Amino acid sequence: GWRLGRRARGADAAWRPRLAVAEMAVGLVTLVVAAALVSTPPTTPAAIEPVTETLVQAGVLAEVTVTPARAGSNELHLVMTPPGGSLQPIGQLTARLTAVGSGVPPFAVELAVAGPNHWTAPVQFPYPGRWQLEFVAEVRPLELVQFRVEFDVNR
């Protein structure tokens, strides 16, 4: 019995150098992978470029901003400057959006007053493509000015 135990211990001793080499190899591979991950710069998302357009009709200046101009949730800003300056209030503003060439009827945009001559609205673009924003401003009682702008909505 005593010799059998000693032989078993001897067999274990023969495996120890191999086991140590295997552990060092695994440790080295782990170190290399960790170093590669640390040295790789993080990926940056594609820059979000809003749509910004300045339109002029009948002396009225309209600044349009759509952020982020991607399919899904967006924010629309309309800032109007009438011929008399930005202190002259715009009476009323209505807007609608159309997917160009889609055959889908236009839908109304629910504008909310954000400040003097400044309106905002949450806008949901169901899919990317070319879109048209059409809006009508009442610059004076019974004097309407119509604006139209096309822009691209990305994925």
Overview of this protein structure:
With 155 residues, the chain is of the alpha+beta class. 25% of the residues lie in helices and 45% in strands. The protein has a 5-stranded antiparallel sheet with strand order 1-2-3-7-6, with no helix packed on it. The chain is rod-shaped, with a radius of gyration of 33 Å. It starts with a helix and ends with a strand.
Quick recap:
This protein is of the alpha+beta class. The chain is built from 1 helix and 9 strands.
Can you lay out the helices and strands and say which pair or pack?
Elements: H1 2-39, E1 51-57, E2 60-67, E3 72-81, E4 93-99, E5 107-109, E6 112-115, E7 118-125, E8 129-140, E9 143-153
Antiparallel strand pairs: 1-2, 2-3, 3-7, 4-5, 4-8, 6-7, 8-9
Q: What are the main properties of this structure?
A:
alpha+beta, 1 helix, 155 residues, 4-stranded antiparallel sheet, single chain, rod-shaped, 5-stranded antiparallel sheet
Report the radius of gyration as a whole number of Å: 33 Å
Strand content: over 45%
Q: What characterizes the major β-sheet?
A: 5 strands, antiparallel
Helix content: 10-25%
Order of helices and strands: HEEEEEEEEE
- Shape type: rod-shaped
SS element count, helices: 1
- Strand arrangement in the largest pleated sheet: 1-2-3-7-6
| Structure classification | alpha+beta
The total count of strands amounts to 9
List unreliable stretches of 5+ residues. none
**Mean pLDDT score, rounded?**
85
Termini separation (Å)? 76 Å
